[in-house]
Automatic annotation (TrEMBL), chains A, B:
It is an enzyme of class 6 (ligase). This is Aspartate--tRNA ligase, cytoplasmic. It is found in: Cytoplasm. It holds the Pfam family tRNA_anti-codon. Its EC number is 6.1.1.12. Its main location: cytoplasm. GO terms for cellular component: aminoacyl-tRNA synthetase multienzyme complex; cytosol. PROSITE patterns: AA_TRNA_LIGASE_II. It comes from Ganoderma sinense ZZ0214-1. GO terms for molecular function: aspartate-tRNA ligase activity; ATP binding; RNA binding. It catalyses: tRNA(Asp) + L-aspartate + ATP = L-aspartyl-tRNA(Asp) + AMP + diphosphate.
Amino acid sequence: MADPQPSQQPPSQDPPQVPAADGEASKGPSKSELKKRAKEEEKARKAAEKAAKQAELDAQKAAADVDFATEFYGKLPLNQSQSRPGRKRTPVACLSPDLDGQTVLVRARVQASRAQGSKMVFLNLRQRSDSVQALLILAQGKVSKQMIKWAAGLQTESIVLAEGVVKKAPEPINSATVQDVELHLTQLHLISGLDTKLPFTVEDANRPEQTQQTEEDPEYKRVLLDTRLNNRVVDLRTETNQAVFKLQAGIGSLFREFLEGQGFIEIHSPKLQGAATESGASVFEVSYFKGKAFLAQSPQLAKQMAIAADFERVYEIGPVFRAENSNTHRHMTEFIGLDLEMAIEEHYHEVMELLDGLFLHMFRGLRQRYAKEIDTVRKQFPADEFKWREGPEGTLKFSFKQAVDLLVDDGVPREKLDDIDTENEKRLGRIVRAKYDTDYYIIDKFPMALRPFYTMPDSEDPTVSNSYDFFMRGEEILSGAQRVHDAALLAEQMRQKGINPESMKPYLQAFQLGCPPHGGGGIGLERVLMLFLELNNIRRASLFPRDPKRLEP
Amino acid sequence: MADPQPSQQPPSQDPPQVPAADGEASKGPSKSELKKRAKEEEKARKAAEKAAKQAELDAQKAAADVDFATEFYGKLPLNQSQSRPGRKRTPVACLSPDLDGQTVLVRARVQASRAQGSKMVFLNLRQRSDSVQALLILAQGKVSKQMIKWAAGLQTESIVLAEGVVKKAPEPINSATVQDVELHLTQLHLISGLDTKLPFTVEDANRPEQTQQTEEDPEYKRVLLDTRLNNRVVDLRTETNQAVFKLQAGIGSLFREFLEGQGFIEIHSPKLQGAATESGASVFEVSYFKGKAFLAQSPQLAKQMAIAADFERVYEIGPVFRAENSNTHRHMTEFIGLDLEMAIEEHYHEVMELLDGLFLHMFRGLRQRYAKEIDTVRKQFPADEFKWREGPEGTLKFSFKQAVDLLVDDGVPREKLDDIDTENEKRLGRIVRAKYDTDYYIIDKFPMALRPFYTMPDSEDPTVSNSYDFFMRGEEILSGAQRVHDAALLAEQMRQKGINPESMKPYLQAFQLGCPPHGGGGIGLERVLMLFLELNNIRRASLFPRDPKRLEP
């Protein structure tokens, strides 16, 4: 039963007490110092006594544990704070024929447990995206019938600590991700059981979305999105979701990596605002001591102020809040904004081109570094490969006017195209994919009337603005523009949109104090994730999504 | 006047229009295709016409610009969207004798402007933490008296685009950070002026905090913190603040770097909560459509649920909200939490040791990679060097009981030490620094009564908990613990603290569904920054700080 693996942590040589702060070097002895030392020696003596006693207790307990485990395959003590043998846990993904014959220790969930008569139990042990088959076999003096029964009765999703010998599998095990070895168990402890009925199994939650109940698989129950979200903790355990959230973290990481390489600095701007900013209608109000505050709809104002404060190039990753009573597949009341803002030297296309470079970096990074995770998600959510243009021709860019022309050519009446609504956006996405073979493109030069007050108008045609949207699969994922850095023009544009400049005084002041020309954009993290993977609902791209009807879990 | 520098961006060969989407490869021609092509050709013809016209306009405008600039040194057009010559801007920090005789283009703020008679103006041009001296000298047919007057009148903090020849300085220029060269200006454009009076100068805001008005420097006005925060955009332009926020970003970056190396994954948990969590008293209430929501005091519940969802090791960087009506030097109503949570194999000290490794990584990283920024801040905020223990002895750790003993030995009555209040924490910091020569230490094993309901009690002494606080300079910067992963014990501990388990059902459910033993901690980003640098007030470590009395700017 000795563990042949080298321990990651050395076994604790000292009794597992908090290391004493005494015994440290101190300066020249004085009377009070000597008194203190005597005290300390007394303390040390007592500590040693206690430690010896503790060691004895530990030894007894360890012995008892072993008995308990080998006799009853029982439950581990709730908290292991008094002993620390330092035995290495082997990740399930690392189990391979190389370890044949070795004893390993694995912490995993019981995905399935099935008795074969009264002499054997098959267990499927799952650890995140990996799983292995384990066998517990009746053995004189080692594994009793009672143990077999106990193991067969382990509830699905229980967490166990399993000790076993790695054995090459006689034939590939299709029910596990580790197919070439199985574990022959020598010990099994319960770390955490379930106190409630499982709302659905992780296996069911991981099935391909299009699969319907069939005669061959009468047991299968399709798990609806609402059921999943109500029991998100179980839903998140699927192989698919483990991959989805690795990809989510990956997007954030690629975003930062690119921008830090371009001289951007990360900032954190306050979400609590003194005034309802940007557009009064869709802001959450907060009780703030005896007054009130509002939740930021984006870091727009703060990041522009950071530019007025000479930060030159800033980015922020943080929550943004939208009080829109909209329950579509692509709206949430809280999501993660990937925002950036930068000073412009000559032309706002400097910003647009940097943003394009950023997206290409993210797309390439996802495909190169997360191919396994993308494949995993595809199994549950079959999707067309996400396409973008590489090479010297560069990303497809066209103007709002040209976008309208494309839609008109496709049969949409021009008089319905003062703005491009969600439906026509999607239509445009299909037109573009058919014509240019890309799912990623940029629309530039939006009409001024469609953009917020802080958008810079074109210097030659003030009905048009220096602004752009980026699209993935026909849905907007970034909105950005050159901003107005001139306080007088900014105040004028506020008035035109019915905003009293007095209500945004601290923001306006930033530009009165001198600010370079600048521009930027804001990306919805969950939207990028949803559209890249075709998850079809943004809630699947959020750990614990929030919408007008959902504040829990 | 030609720029001898290689251009970063190639000059735009095409007219600066939005690239046309037409002309792309399309599949086999059909009747409608041919019709379309004719249309496209017509479009292309028109575009070419427009482009030619545009090029002419641009040329006229560029010529006008040059005239304008050389004649009047005037204001640049507000937005440069129609021309993009692609001339490189040289960062002020890169100006050096190597460039002697070369013409460069610099965008910078006018920190000071002083006429020397009617024939010369000295300008101090500042760019973030760097500055250079520039001269404008009367020259027949090139620089008129009117220009000299205009430049001498430029308001402090105006942003200019300056073209000039780099010249070796005859003697070191003490008033600038670039001391060995000066710029002899050939052109000067105003990019952004001021529409308001400057509340204080950036020079004054950058002076050492202890400096008082003296007879030698009768002009100097000490800028009070409130004045700074009311005009944060100007205050942030100081060399000190530019460094402070590079350090803030640095801490976040080191935090992520260490944890990603340890297999942690970044998560984003919702700030909008359905219930007032953790402790009802200090939670902000939000109007949520027809109901209400609450702002998360920390990602505590969500990150534990992520562990129950098999994420194993998670971290989050995000805002946390505290509705405490407290206006101390170390409290804000919103700050950035650096949070982590991880599964435990054997002992909660696995978490404590990982957190210790994390802090050492951050301290070492700050000292090694940000030495220049730390020095910059020290000039305004003189501080004792932050000390921590390196080498085999490791970080100083002691138990809460031992901390109490240290205070009792120092003269604090034991009966006042059921808890260690802020004052005694600071006292302990001084004792520890005197005795152990460190500003960084860990206190372990807090009494259960002092910790939140989700804290795991010690298995042998339930009055004590498996929890710890980390300290810098006698102030708490991290609080953490092993958490209760057993639903029954968790519910029991809720009841003991007067919380109805029903009110936290989705959280409790996570543990009913099986959860591994786990622990973690939460770090206040601004506190770490404040204490490392001894900024003395946490507001200085926040871009736009929020407290009960401040919601703006």
